[in-house]
Amino acid sequence: MSDNIDRSAQKQILFWLLAIAFFIGFLWVFRSILLPFVAGMALAYFLDPVADFLERLGFTRLIATVVIVISFILIFIFSLAIFLPLLANQAQAFAEHVPTLVARLQKLVMSIEAEWLRNILGGDDASLQETINRVMGKSIGWITTVLSQIWSSGKALINVISLLIVTPVVAFYMLLDWDRMVTKVDNWLPRDHHSTIRDVMHEINIAIAGFVRGQGTLCLILGIFYGVSLTVIGLNFGLLIGLFAGLISFIPYVGSITGLVVSIGVALVQFWPNWIPVTVVAGIFVVGQFAEGNILQPKLVGKSVGLHPVWLMFALFAFGSLFGFTGLLIAVPAAAAVGVIVRFGLNQYLASENYNGAGNLDQDK
Asked: What is the pLDDT of residues 206-235, one digit of tens each?
C-alpha cells in the first residue's frame, strides 16, 4: 500500500514538474509576442470584480463587460491625451538638463562648509571634488543604463498597434468568459485532491489579488499624489518624478527613496538657498509614506500578500531578464504563486514523518 502511495506521489510530482517546464518553455519561445495577450489577461483579472459588481446590480455579463471595456478605453485615451504630451516634454527636458543639474548639484555640495563631509570623503577640496564626480558619474551611468535598457526592450517588445488593438480584444473576451473559465478549470482538478488544490489556488488568488489589484491601486494613488503635489509647489519635472516614484512603489522602498532623492536633488538646484521648498518636497514624501503605511496599505493590500521584498525584487529582475517586459508583468503573480506553494509544501513537510518521525506521529494519533 505504501509503495502504491509513493508511486502515485512520484507520478504527480513528475506531472507537475513537466507542466511547469512546458509553461516556462512556452513563455521562452513566444516571449516576443506575448505582451498584448498577457496585458489583456492582467486587465481582465484586474477588472473582474467590477464586472461581478455590475452583475449583482442586474447587468448581464455581456453588458457589464462592454460597459467596463469601453469605459476603460475612454479613460485611458483621455489620460493619454492629457498627460502623455506633458510627460513626454518633461522627460525630454529632464534628459537634456541632467548634465546641468548634476554640475550645479556638484557645485552646491562643494560650496557647503562642512568639515565632517570633507573628512569623510577625502579631506581636501580636490579629493572631495573627485569623489563627488565619481559618485555622480556612477549614479548617472546606472540611471542611463537602466533607462536605455527599458527603452530598448520596449522598442523590441512593445508593438503599439498590437497593444492598442489586441489587448482590449483579449481583455474583452477574457472578462466575458472569466467565471466560465474558472469553473471549467475547477472541473479539471483531480477528484482525490480537489479540496486541497482549491484551497491552495484560493490562497494564490488572495495573494495575487492583494498585490495586483491592491498594490496597483495604491501605486496609482501615490503617483497622482506625488505628481500633483510636486507640480503644485513648482518643482521642475514634478509631474514626471512624482508619477514615476508612485508607479514603481510596488518595489518596496525603491519608489519612495528614488522619488525623494531625485526630488531633493532637483529642489536643491532650483530653490537653493531657500530651504522652505526643499523641506516641503521632503514633507510630501513623508506624508505619502505615512499614508501608504497606515492607510492605503492596510485598506487596499492587507496582510495576505506575503511577498518578502527581497523575493519580490529577485522575481522582477529574474523574469525581466528572461522574458523582457512581458516577464515584468508575470513576475509578481508568479512570485505570489510560488510563495504560496512553498509555504504549503513547508507546512506539509512539518506535518509529515520526514520531519516529526514515524514514532512522534504515532504518539500524536
From this structure: 777 777 777 778 888 888 899 889 889 888
Q: Grid cell 509578481 — which residue?
A: 332
Domain boundary among 148, 167, 188: 188
Q: How far is CA 204 from CA 111, 199, 210, 212, 332, in A?
A: 54, 9, 10, 12, 11
pTM, rounded to two decimals:
0.63
Residue 278 lies in domain: 193-352
Residues 163 and 214 grouped into a single domain: no
Give me the pLDDT at residue 156, please. Answer: 44
Q: 4 to each of 11, 16, 17, 43, 192, how far by Cα in Å?
A: 11, 19, 20, 44, 15
Residue spans of beta strands (DSSP E) within the chain: none
The C-alpha atoms of residue 30 and residue 271 are separated, in whole angstroms, by 50
234 within some domain: yes
Q: Does 69 share its domain with 216?
A: no
Measured between alpha carbons, how far is 289 from 295 in angstroms, rounded to an integer?
Answer: 10
Q: Is residue 358 part of a domain?
A: no
pLDDT, tens only, 147-197: 555 444 444 444 555 667 788 888 888 888 888 888 888 888 777 777 887
Cell of 186: 475547477
End-to-end Cα, the chain, rounded Å: 20
